[in-house]
Amino acid sequence: MAQEHPYRPPPSVGHEIGVMFGFIGFMLLCMVAYGVAWNIGNKKSQKKEADRIEKLRASGLLRREKEGLPEAHGT
User: Which residues cross the membrane (predicted)?
Assistant: First the structure.
């Protein structure tokens, strides 16, 4: 008859749980950093687009939009 031994978790369980939570924390940190970088990139792109549109308006190419006239497409 086999002897009954109480369950003892392996000694590396604490390390494995630490690695798991460390990875989850690192993943969340990377997601936040990516979101910040994405927003900064979008703001720069929107600023460039606004400057480009302002230059077109100053040159008169967007005159119809400014005057409220419909744009002629295809001509």
Answer: 17-38
| pLDDT single digits (tens) 28-72 | 999 999 999 999 999 999 999 999 999 988 888 886 554 555 555
Residue positions counted in the chain: 75
Q: What is the DSSP code (8-state) at residue 69?
A: P
Provide the 8-state DSSP code for 71: P
Q: 1: buried, middle or exposed (CB in 10 Å: 19+, 13-18, 0-12)?
A: exposed
Give the tokens for residue 72. 């002629």
Task: Indicate yes or no: pTM above 0.85.
Answer: no
